[in-house]
């Protein structure tokens, strides 16, 4: 059982790479690679959060080895994809591989912050509903 759903941003990037008529522009490819890196960063955060709880559950015998192995496989796949993203980035611009993950992390944090603000505002909007004026 996979830990994460299908990696659609990776698939989109690969599709753009293979697109022949017309070929994808460099800008499209870079944007798709950055979106892929953002997905990887998001997955890295989730794995990091899940690891602590999962280790505790495994040690207590509350979850089976199959779940732990699924988690380890997800970590390995993510590590490989991070290396692939870094290598791909370097094909566009020398040393971009060293910074693409930092950029993706910053963008992911901004996205998470925006999502949190939207949730907070939605909660405020719902509090005012249903009151008589």
TrEMBL record:
Gene Ontology biological process terms from the UniProt entry: post-translational protein targeting to membrane, translocation
GO cellular component: Sec62/Sec63 complex
Top-level taxonomic group: Eukaryota
Segments for region (Disordered): 111-133
InterPro entries xrefs: Sec66
Classification via Pfam families: Sec66
Protein name: 1352_t:CDS:1
Gene source species: Cetraspora pellucida
Classification lineage: Eukaryota, Fungi, Fungi incertae sedis, Mucoromycota, Glomeromycotina
């Amino acid at each position: 059982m996979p830990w994460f759903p299908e990696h659609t941003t990776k698939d989109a990037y690969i599709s753009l790479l293979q697109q022949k008529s017309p070929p994808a522009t460099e800008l499209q490819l870079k944007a798709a690679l950055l979106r892929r890196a953002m997905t990887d960063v998001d997955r890295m955060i989730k794995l990091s959060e899940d690891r602590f709880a999962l280790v505790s559950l495994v040690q207590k015998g509350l979850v089976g080895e199959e779940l732990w192995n699924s988690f380890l496989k997800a970590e390995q796949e993510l590590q490989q994809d991070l290396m692939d993203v870094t290598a791909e980035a370097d094909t566009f611009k020398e040393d971009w591989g060293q910074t693409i993950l930092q950029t993706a992390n910053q963008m992911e944090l901004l996205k998470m912050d925006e999502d949190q603000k939207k949730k907070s505002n939605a909660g405020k909007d719902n509090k005012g509903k249903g009151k008589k004026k």
